Amino acid sequence: MCRSIKTLRPPAMPEEATEADIRAAALQYVRKVSGFRAPAAHNQEVFERAVEAVAQATAELLDGLEIRGAGARQAS
């Protein structure tokens, strides 16, 4: 697992994950999986599509999680 990716759900994160937090995690994931920190021009489009897809899937996951326990908030 990429160490730069942090847990984005409560209670690990005190406030709700922002769009920037989600995109940063998605970017780190795609970098790790692809092996490229910055893709070559001919790979840029597919790289960006992957980041967007992972960010969307992450946002959907966080929105759907039900967090239980003391002090935890539930997703809307």
Beta-strand level of the residues, as a percent range? under 5%
Overall structural domain count? 1
Total DSSP helices: 2
> Largest beta sheet, briefly?
none
Structural class call reads mainly alpha
Amount of helix: 40-55%
Poorly predicted spans: none
Number of strands: 0
What's the rounded overall pLDDT mean? 87
What Rg do the Cα atoms give? 14 Å
The gross shape turns out to be elongated
Termini, distance in Å? 28 Å
Output the helix-strand order: HH
Summarize the entry for a quick read.
This protein has 76 residues and is mostly helical.
Describe the fold and architecture.
The protein is mainly alpha-helical and 76 residues long. It has one domain (1-76). 49% of the residues lie in helices and 0% in strands. It has helices spanning 19-34, 44-64. The longest helix has 21 residues, at 44-64. It is elongated and about 45 Å long. It starts with 18 loop residues before the first helix and ends in a 12-residue tail after the last helix. This is DUF2277 domain-containing protein. It holds the Pfam family DUF2277.
Write the layout of secondary structure elements.
Blueprint (H helix, E strand, L loop, with lengths): L18 H16 L9 H21 L12
Helix pairs in contact: 1-2
Q: Which structural traits does this protein have?
A:
49% helix, elongated, DUF2277 domain-containing protein, 76 residues, DUF2277, mainly alpha
